[in-house]
Specification:
This protein is α+β, with helices and mostly antiparallel strands. Helices cover 41% and strands 19% of the residues. Helix 1 crosses helix 3 and helix 7 crosses helix 8.
């Protein structure tokens, strides 16, 4: 967890983990907003963290045999693993792949309330933010979820940025017709 508790990680993570986080009213995506915060140094940090090298996307579709990996107990019977590849982030629970945020994304897999419950765990804010791309919400929950996302992002980002990005993310998590929980 210490490796990801920095601004470089979160700028890059939010910039690439929400393939459909778009606010139609504002006509902006979470990636666009985060791109403005990305520095050259932050980009280099992310490349080193994920193991990126020139040609990885062409050679292996952005996947490594030994990616940067976070493993954590979420509950007595729930073990999570997140793999950070140069071209994708893969999520596993109890050894079963449950989602990804890369080019063949699989999102909206976990009811938001389950993701929200992660806040009660040690490192809860980080776990909440890490699993948020997999959450699914009902459209009527968008405003309250947006506020909660913004509050958690506030540990890393200025309030104005949190408001914009959380709006994009909540809109993406609540797209009509996609609620499966």
């Amino acid at each position: 967890m210490k490796d990801i508790d920095n601004l470089y990680f979160w700028v890059n993570y939010f910039g690439c983990s929400y393939p459909n986080a778009y606010d139609e009213e504002e006509e902006v995506s979470a990636s666009d907003i985060m791109q403005e915060m990305l520095t050259e140094e932050g980009g280099r940090w992310w490349e080193q963290f994920t193991g990126y090298y020139d040609g990885i996307l062409e050679e292996n579709d952005g996947y490594l045999d030994e990616p940067a990996t976070l493993e954590v107990m979420m509950a007595q019977d729930k073990y999570a693993k997140i793999e950070f590849h140069p071209g994708d982030t893969l999520y596993y629970i109890n050894g079963e792949k449950i989602g990804s945020t890369g080019p063949h994304w699989e999102i909206r897999k976990i009811p938001y309330e389950e993701v929200r419950q992660l806040l009660a765990l040690e490192n809860g804010c980080q776990l909440y933010l890490l699993f948020l791309p997999l959450a699914v919400i009902r459209p009527e929950e968008t405003d309250s979820v947006r506020r909660e996302i913004g509050a958690q992002m506030g540990k890393y980002f200025p309030e104005s940025l949190c408001r914009s990005v959380s709006g994009c993310i909540a809109a993406g998590l609540a797209q009509e017709g996609r609620f499966h929980a």
